[in-house]
Amino acid sequence: MSFLKVENRVVLMVGLTNPMGEAIGIRLGKAGANIVVVGEDSEKVNSVVKKISDAGAKAEGKAVNIKDEGEVKNTVEEVAQKFGTIDILINGTDYVNCKSLNETSVEDWNNSFENNLLPMFLFTKYVVPKMQDKKYGRIVNISDLKYLGFPGTSNYASAKSGIFGFTRALALELAKDQITVNTVIKGDIDLEGKELSEEELKKALATIPVQRLGKPEDVALAVSYFVSDLSSYTTGQMFFVCGGKSIYASMSI
C-alpha cells in the first residue's frame, strides 16, 4: 500500500454499491481516506459501508436519487460541509440493459443514457467547484469494455462511449486547476462470486487472453493509481482492466 498516497483524502463514490465498490472503498479506506458511498438503494449502500468499516476503514453512506439535480447538489454540499472538501470523485454507476436494435425502444435508449451518464454529469458538475477552490482533485469514471461495440449492445455501448468524450474534454478543461480526469474500463469482472459450470467457464474464458475472470480488486488497483497523489501527471487516459480482451475484442465480432 506504500504507493497509495490518499491519507485524509475525502472520497465520494457514486453508484458503486456492489463488490467493486467494496474493493475500492476498502483499498482506499485502509490507506487512510474517508469514504462516502452514495447510491439509490439504501440496503446496498449500507451493505458496502459495513464491508468497508469491517475492514477497519472510515466509511459512511447516503441513499439519494442520483439522477435528481437537487438531491445531488444537496448531497455534495452536505459531504463538503462535513469534511471540509471533496478530494476524489469516483463515478461508477452502471445500468445494463443491452438489447438488439429491433428490440430497443425509445424508452430503452433514453434509459441507457439517463442512468449511465446523468449521475456522472451531475456529481461532477457540483463536485468540481470544490476541487477548483483548493486547486486539487481526482476524478475517475468507470466504464465497460462493451463501449467498443458488441452485437446486441448498441444502446448500452452508445451510453458508455459517452464517458470517453466526457473524460477527455474535462481533462483538458480542468488541467489548469490541477484536477485530473481518467477512466477505468472494466472487462469481465466477477461481481457475483457464483460458481460457473465447466462449460460456462470455458465459454467465458475463450475470449480472455489471461484465462481468468477479473476480480473487483483488479479494478480497485487501477482506480487506486488514478486517485493517488502520485498520478498528477496522468490525465485524460483510458485504463483497460480486461485481461487483454480489449486488444482484439472490437475486431473479432
Walk me through the topology:
Layout: E1 10-14, H1 19-30, E2 34-39, H2 42-54, E3 58-63, H3 69-83, E4 88-91, H4 106-134, E5 137-144, H5 154-174, E6 179-186, H6 198-205, H7 216-227, E7 238-241
Parallel strand pairs: 1-2, 1-4, 2-3, 4-5, 5-6, 6-7
Helix pairs in contact: 1-2, 1-7, 3-4, 4-5
Word description of this protein:
With 253 residues, the protein is an alpha/beta fold. It has one domain (10-251): 3-Layer(aba) Sandwich (Rossmann fold), CATH 3.40.50. 43% of the residues lie in helices and 16% in strands. The protein contains seven helices and seven strands. Strands 3-2-1-4-5-6-7 form a seven-stranded parallel sheet, sandwiched between helices. α1 (19-30) runs parallel beside α2 (42-54), α3 (69-83) packs parallel to α4 (106-134) and α4 runs parallel beside α5 (154-174). The N and C termini lie far apart (39 Å).
List keywords for this structure.
single chain, 253 residues, alpha/beta, Rossmann fold, seven-stranded parallel β-sheet, 43% helix, 16% strand, globular
CATH class: Alpha Beta
The CATH architecture classification is 3-Layer(aba) Sandwich
Instruction: Output the CATH topology.
Output: Rossmann fold
**Domain module count:** 1
Uncertain residue segments: none
Protein structure class: alpha/beta
